[in-house]
Each structure stands twice: as C-alpha cells, then as structure tokens.
TrEMBL record:
The protein's name in its UniProt record: Helix-turn-helix transcriptional regulator
Domain of life: Bacteria
Keywords (A to Z) from UniProt: ATP-binding, Nucleotide-binding
Provenance organism: Sphaerisporangium aureirubrum
Gene3D superfamilies given in the database record: P-loop containing nucleotide triphosphate hydrolases, Tetratricopeptide repeat domain, Winged helix-like DNA-binding domain superfamily/Winged helix DNA-binding domain
Amino acid sequence: MSVPSPALVGRAAELRTLIEAVTRPPAVVLVEGEAGIGKTRLVRAALGRLPSGDRGVLLGYCHPIREPFPYGPVFEALRDVEGRLPPTRELNPVTGALRGHLPEIAHALPPSPEPLDDPRAERHRVFRAIRALLASVGPAVLVIEDLHWADDGTRDLLRFLTGRPPEGLAVVATYRRETHGAARSPLGRAYLHQPDTTYVVVPLAPLDAGDVGSLAGALLDRSDLPSSFVSRLHERTAGIPFVVEEVLRSLPDAEGPDALDRAGVPLLLREAMAERMAGLSPAAVGAVQAMAVLRVPAGEQLITAVGGDPAGLGEALRAGVLHEQADGRYGFRHILAQKAVYDAIPGPDRRSAHDRAMIALEAMDSPPLVQLAFHARRAGDTAAWLRHGTAAAQRAATLGDTALAIEVVEGMLEDADLPATHRGPLALMLSRFAATGLSHQRVVRLLRHVLRDDFLSPGARGEVRLNLGVVLSNQAGDTAAGRSEILAALAELSDRPTLAARGWASLAMPGWGTDPLSMHQEWMARAESLVATADDPALAAAVRANRASLEMMIGSPDAFAVAATLPVADPRTAVRREVARAYSNLHDAATTLGLHASAEKFAMEGRRLATETGAQYPAFLLASSTIRRDWLTGRWDGLRDRAASLGELATETPLIAVDIWLVLGSLALATGEWDEAYRWFQAAGLDAPDARYVPIVAAAAGGMIDLHLARGALDPAVAEAQRAVARVRRKGVWVWGSHLIPSAVTALAWAGRMKPAAALVGEYAEGIADRMAPTAHAALDTARGALAAAEQRHADAVGHFARARETYAGLPEPYAAARAGEGEARARLALGDGSAAAGFTELAERFARLGATHDAARCRRALRDIGVGFQLPKGRRRNVSVLSQREREVARLVALGRTNREIADVLFLSTRTVESHVATVLRKLGVRSRTEVAPPA
C-alpha cells in the first residue's frame, strides 16, 4: 500500500507559536518531545511557512555516537553561509578565527588572528567569531536537531549564542524531553535569556485519538476510516506520529476493524519496518542493515564496505527506507527506524557486520575511536574494545573533551562483561580525568558507585577516593563531602605515603572549610614530611605548589621566596601541570592581597603552563580570577559582558566561578541593581558560606552589607556583619577581610555599637600587622576613618580616609580609592571645609567614568544638598532620539522592571523627576510600554 508523505496534524497552535517566535528575532525556540513525536516535521513545516524574504536557514545535526569535535553541529550549519556573506572587508576581523574550522568558506573570511596562549580565551574568541559571522549573514534561522546528543562544547556555544543572540538570528533546537527527574533546559540550568530575546519552549505531546484519525486519513487519503480502526490505531501507537506513519506504511489495507490485527502484532515499529524490508532486494537489505549497524550517517563507501553491494543503497533510497543527508551521507530518517532494523538482524549477522565496520573504520586516515570501541563491543572483541575505548578516552581528554572521555570510560565500567582485571585501571583513569578536568556531576556518581564495589585493591581504592575528594572539593565546591572522602582515603593509603601526602596537602589549602589556619598549617607539615623521602617529582611539585599557595593566601612575607622555588622549567608535563595550578592559586591570592603587578606575572606564566600541559581547571581559575582583578583595578569597560560570557562556560561548575558571581554582584551594586546584586552575592558563597571559598565569601559579605546599608536596612546589615566577621575570626586569616571589615565597622557604627566597632578595628589591625597585604592595610585606614567619622572625630577621619585613598590609588584600585575619597569628602564637609564640594564633584565624575552610576548619583545628591549645581553630559541636540546619560541610567533600570519609586531611590531623584525621564525614554525609543524598553547597549 502506498502512503504519501505525512501531513502535519494536530499541531496548529505549536506551528503558530513557532512561526511567531522565529519571525520576531532575536529568538530562542526549544522544541521538545519524545522520539518520533514530530519535532523535525514541525520545524520543517514552520520553515516552509515563513514569510517570504531574504532569511537564511542553517541546519546542523547532533548524532548519538560522537567523536571529540566540539561545536561540530554548528560548524556543519555554517558551511551553508557562503552565499550570504558580505565582502571580506566588511566582516568583523574576529571571524578570521574560523578559517581553520570552516575550510569550505575560508577564502571568504578575514585573515586568521594570532593564536592566544590561553585556551579559554581562544575558545571565547571562536564563540565571538561564530556570533559575528551569524550577525553578518542578516536575518537567519539556525536549526540544531537532536540537542540531547550534543557535546558539552556545542551546549556551551549555544548558551553563548542564545544568551545574547545577534539581532536578526533565531535559534531553533529540537531535543528529547527527559523522561525522569526534574525537567530542565537542554541549555543547562544556568541559561538565562535576555529581556529583549523572544524565548519559547514548544512541548509536543502525543496526538489524541481524533488527531490520529486525521493523520491516518491524510496518509491513506481516506475520509471514511472506521472509528474502531482509528481507536485501535491510537491505542497501539500511543499517538506517536512517526509510529503511526510507519505502521500505516506496512498495512495492506485499512478495511474493517481487524485491519490492524491482520498486520501482525500490535503495530510496533519493528513490525512496520520488517514489512518494508521484506519488499527490498537482498542488496538493498544489506545496505539498510549496514546503516543500522553503523548507527550514524555514513558515506556510500563505508556503507558498501559493511553491507557488501553498492547497488543496494540506491534501491533503499528510492524505497524511502534510507534518506540522503548533508555532505553525501545517508541514514535513517529517525532513530526508531534504525533500532527496529538493527534488532531484527540475527545475532551472528550483527557480529559479522560490526567486524566489517571495524575493519573499514580502522583503515581510515584518522580512525573514529569512539565508533571503533562501539563496534568492537558489539562484535564481542573484548581486546579491541578495551584498546579502542581506552584510546578514545585518552584522545578526548587530550583534546579537552573531558566529558566525552568520562562518558567512554563510564560506559565501559558499567558493562557487565568488562573483565574484572580491567575495572581497577579504568576506575583510576576516570578519577584522574576528573581531577584535571571541569566536569564532575556524572563522575561523582560513578566514582561513588565504583567505591561501593569490591573489585579495587586497597591502594587503588584509596587513590580513587582521594581523587573523588579533590573533585568534590574543587570542581563541585562541596568542601564538607570532599574533606570526608579525603580523610577516608588517607586511612586507605597507609601503605602509599606519597599519595597520602597529596591528600594532606589538599586539606592544607586554607581557603576552604571552617578549620582554623593552625590546622591547615599542621596538615601542610604532614604532607611535607611524607614527601621528603619520596622519589616522585610530580608529587613533590604538588606539595610545593600547595605550600606556595598557602603562604601567598595568608600574606606571608616568605610567600614570594617559596614561589620562586617552584620547578617551572621542569621537562616533565605532570610536574609543570602542578606548577600551573600553583600559579593560578598565586594569582588569585595576590589579587586578594592587592599585589596586582605580581598577580599579572603569575597569570601570564600560569596561562602558558596550563596551555602546554592541558590543565583545564587552573586555566579556568585564572580566567575567573582575572575577571575579579579587572574589577578591582578599574578595567570595567565591557566587564559585565566578559564576566557573563565566562560564566556561560561554567554551567556544570558554578561553584568554582565565584569570582565571576562576586564581580557581577559588585557591578550590580555600583549601578543600583539591588535584586541582581543580592542574587549574585548569594551565588558567590553566601548561600552556603561554610562550604564555599572563604576569601570570596568574605568579600561577598562586604558587598551584601553595603547593599543592606544602601537600602536603609540597618539591622540586616549588622547581622550580616556579625556572621561574616565570626567566619573570618574562626579561620584566623584577617587579610581576607579587606572588602568586609570597613563595611562591617560602618554597619556597627551606624547602629550605635561603637565599642564592638572599635574592638573590631583593633582586632583587624593586629591580624594584619605583619602581613604583606596592601589592600588590607588600606582597608584598615578606611575602617578607622569610618569609626572616627561615626565618633564625630572628623579631622581624624579625614586623615584616615586620605591615607586609604592614596594607597588604593597606588595599587591601583580606583573604585576603592573613590569610595575612600567620598568618606574623606564627607568628613571635610562636616568640618566646614570648602574643598568638600570640589571633592564631591570630582568623585561624581570618577564614579561615572567607571560606570558606578549609583555612587555617582549619591555624590551628586551630596552636591545638591549643599547647594552646588552639577551638569550631566547631554546627548547631541542634532539627534533628539539619543538618550542622555541620565536617561540611559533610567532606561537601564526600567528594562530591569524597576518601579519609578525604586528608580528614584537608586538615582537619588524625586519620583516626579523619574516619571518625566521615563516618558522621555519611551518617546525617544519609540515604544509605548515600559516592558518594551531594552537595556541600553
């Protein structure tokens, strides 16, 4: 029986939603549903019904067996852009970074830029280049099919693109909805779309009985199908359109209520495919079965090598059993069809086909190791399976695709037929991959499962548990669980003192946990005593790295001398990988201390070593803490976007991106975005302060105190101050209080608690007295100034704030310098000093240049209070649509959903003045509603 191409039935609302979203770019549309539900058909129907115009359609596909080729689906889609590209001279120069990835259009791209030393920076440049390329092709629809099979790199890239898509781009992704657990976006929990981006999720459910009848009628060209037939069809197919189609293709007719029963079984897809296969010649059957064995789209030569007869492929295509895909490859229209054919192949024939697939794939210039491992396993060749699987995992890890490396090893470990002698080495391999990579969620689950089994030797068990503890402490940010595993591992490593030394050295890092510094120093001494007699250069380097890190973190005067002993030029990769980790820690610690010139040197050397040794974790930490250094040193231009872009790459490891969340919170505080600041400070560690990175938690607490004070919430500010100071006091590392203590003293003093405030100043002074920490000493002067001002000792306050301002300016930390300068100006004003007005004027300009609009508005309010006028820069009169500086500030807060009263509080204006500014913003932007206002660029 002939059945035409299926009609789109029962999807009118979904089709309308999809078309409306795609025609209102920038847009992100996620089409979700189970296999065979009609996701692809809906997208194709929508694309065919788009309004006429010059809108490009770019198609990319994810596959169930993937090799380590990050961003492959997107690059596949971009191969079709050549005809839409503008002249090379008009392209953004950054698009030249894609020449090596897109050889088909390399001639149309600008020259390749110089390679970057930092792999994270290189990846971000590729992301920017892809976004710029998409922006250059005008209105376009980027379709990525089967996102559930995407590699982590592709997901990261799509998060980047969909977080801030080009103006004319609509991104449409199809994916299978998860069938268990809590529903979540395929773009990750951290994905947030912008207010000006159309964002739609189109869920597809099975068809009801009426729609199944309509679909069957359209497929069979019948309007008189018996109701009993339709009911039975719906029951047996569960309303899945693809199954309905394949079942109807296998029916000889649809007469009578028993037609479905006459088809064989209750209309399962494998029965439908069997009927279709029965009409093919042996040659065509061989081609179809070869494709089922290969699983992923393949070319004619490979299909022929597995299936035998080249004539069969053409017949299978003409019969519609196989379909031609992009780049001369062929495959099934749906994974369900592939599975149905594969399951019907007799076992011995399947094994023979997998053997032929292995031979053909091994003959390739660059054999796909993941596919080879798959075929070896299905062929029953255990030795080849272990060989190819191990090589695939190692290659993936080398290329930075740790997630795939873990996926391969995980699949092998979970296989019941894996020989017991190989489980231990694979478990160790998995734990080592995890310790040097960024992925952790699946690893933690699997390693815990491995540790519950009894196939590991005691020494191997200890090493796996130690690596699990490191992953939990570092990548997962779960210090309590990580420390528990490390302590348990130390008990299991009694006969392996070198590994035990690594465990003690890990515990010795003082930035984590609630133990006092003295305990960390004791653990460090244990590690050093164990490693002293060990002949293990990598271990010695690891312990030395932690000692240098500890000394720098606490501001020890000996820190630089210890750092100078690190074996930076050692020829062994494992040793230099430990030095790369040390330099990332040294950069972070020097940034906290205010030693920014030294921090920059550590960063440069650390990036070089991380690139040379493939150390992902240190590379990310360097990038993250560099964002914090940029904030401290006043490099705020584009900082919010840089931080957000880097944060997009940390969706699985949000707890090690706390520097980024701290910076985003501090920037939000400086611009009066109260809700955003609160949310980011919580993410930076205040959500679980005892389990987070202590120096960042202390800084976030300082920001939260300032936020409460800015909102007039004195009691919460005091409570936050007391909790945060107690944490630092318990740890005993007072140099970490540079962004906390001045705020805490201010909150206590404003609440009239002068004695506790004075005691805190004294305790802080004693705690940092012999420390190498210029930021902490400047903070001490700031805290003394705040205390003096609260005690009405304004002359003393002027001196303290002035010294702090000068120290901060020399570091340089211009925002902190301006904040100290504001304290100085207010103290001068209290003394009746006429220079206060000039000070506030200069400070308002400094804050505005940085982008600290709330701080600038506070200084302008002080000028108004003393009767001094202040003129804001205005837009050019020739262009009446250009927003002035004040209007841009108002527009930004309107776009965030703030009320006029809230805007007035942030900008120190009257509500009536804000109402006037809002009306002007709406008129200049040509919109009717506040909800249509987008954040100014």
